[in-house]
Amino acid sequence: MLAMVLGAGSAVAQDVVEAGQTSTLTVTSRLVVLDVVVVDAKGNPVTTLDQSKFRIYEDKIPQAIKNFDAPTSHLMPPGMEGKLVVDSAADLPKIGRSPVNVLVFDELNTPFHDLSYAREQMMKYLLSLPEVLPVPTLFVAAGNTKMAVLHDYTQSRAELIASVKKHTADVDFTMIMAQLNGGKTGKDNGLVATLGALSQIAESVKGVPGRKNLIWVGKGYNNAVDLQSMSESDHDRVLAVIKQVTDRMLAARVVLYTIDPDGPVKADEVTAETIDPTNVGSPGSQVGDFGDGLGFYEFSKETGGRVISGRNDIDVQLAQVSKEGTEYYTLSYAPTSMDDAARPYRKIRVLVSEPGYRVMTREGYFSGAAKVSAVALAPRAKQPKDVQYDLLTAARTTLAYTGLHVMAQRTKPGYTLLVNANDLQFNAQADGTRLAEVTIVAVSYNTKGKESGQRAMELKEELGPNDVVQRGSQVGFAVPMIVPAFTQRVRFVVRDASTGTMGSAEGKP
């Protein structure tokens, strides 16, 4: 088990409050936001419907639509069409609530020959796009040893193509040899690693306000050894983790599209889903759907995406789902029932009053606030496993975490991390003050990209009863640390102790 030693520290407030002003209490009702894709019988998106055509039901009870956005409202802001606006996660605020794509190469679970074909088709797809992509795209590879960022968010077709050409697949050669000898079993820890990758992506995009189309090219964990050989005692624990990851994806408005590069299926393997051009809904009898919510394809169903299998035109399918991910309606409603006892699962159904149309949206949600594991109070206490995983995994990647907006400034004797005050949760105290607590992890990397040092600490920021957080205000957290010699970069991850939301920043030595 990884252990984190949390040291004491102090926070320095910068431009946070205006004295002499009073706080304003704002009461808001909970809204459920749905991204809805409507397709015709041929699988083509339908974009001309108005609000009167939609009906929403939660647990079979009709719900009143509070807000309605047509697909045209998700276009890039005026004046940005055809222009290269985004070339890193730092540019995402410029596009408002427009959607983004996250392309994932599944090198962990996908047979090598399928992966090679998928790479070829990915290049074909990219070459078919305009020089400036209409949708900012993050490109990552879920590999054998880690999840690597092949390219940060960008609209540059040339840069994405270059990242494909220079990438060397991170594969398990033992598994490749088994596959070449006729074996069909996947990675030993394919289930755990894949769930970790999904969770990591969902947490990283938490601060991006629009829809996130997660396009997963690969098989997922369906053939992983740890799923196929799971003991009965592990079943409930794994199912609980799957539900937690699903909850994170839904909260971040992540929609999963799974594209299996295996190619056309044999006649005796054809299912209703593989011959259906829209392939909407549950994968039914496809391999990996265990009927109990454990299958990888369930994520597509739950989040409102779909599974595409039995096809050899991956480039066409990539183009289709990318387009589909921009041509959606956004509807919201305030549930008629606010009972959050035991966080029951609320079933959602959206219907349109036009014959022959099909609707894709998420199937439901868990009501109430998600459970957030608290950081242990004693410096030497063992931290909860999910806290360890979230923080240290985020610190050991170059994936930008956006839930908290963080900037790192080099100061003596270390760094100051500037965090947007409105991103933090300030909790009321008995004396009328409000307190925000964060956990910070800093990892240093040398010129060879190897970890050369690590520091973790808990810090606090307190506001007075009459302090008001202004728009654009920041909290400065002082992080004293000795930077090892030959350090090339320092990676910082900040986690809000109350919400579990994280942000990252890169510091120069």
Note down, in words, how this protein is organized.
The chain has 509 residues and is an alpha+beta fold. It is built from ten helices and 23 strands. It has helices at 112-127, 157-166, 173-180, 190-204, 225-228, 232-251, 272-275, 298-303, 314-324, 385-395, and strands at residues 11-14, 32-39, 54-58, 61-63, 65-69, 100-106, 132-142, 147-156, 212-217, 254-259, 306-308, 329-333, 345-352, 358-360, 364-366, 406-411, 414-420, 427-428, 434-446, 451-463, 474-480, 487-496, 502-507. A hairpin with a 5-residue loop joins β18 and β19 (434-446). The chain is globular. The chain starts with 10 loop residues before the first strand and ends with a strand.
Topology:
Elements: E1 11-14, E2 32-39, E3 54-58, E4 61-63, E5 65-69, E6 100-106, H1 112-127, E7 132-142, E8 147-156, H2 157-166, H3 173-180, H4 190-204, E9 212-217, H5 225-228, H6 232-251, E10 254-259, H7 272-275, H8 298-303, E11 306-308, H9 314-324, E12 329-333, E13 345-352, E14 358-360, E15 364-366, H10 385-395, E16 406-411, E17 414-420, E18 427-428, E19 434-446, E20 451-463, E21 474-480, E22 487-496, E23 502-507
Parallel strand pairs: 6-7, 6-9, 9-10, 10-11
Antiparallel strand pairs: 1-21, 2-12, 2-14, 3-4, 3-13, 5-12, 7-8, 13-15, 16-17, 17-21, 18-19, 19-20, 19-22, 22-23
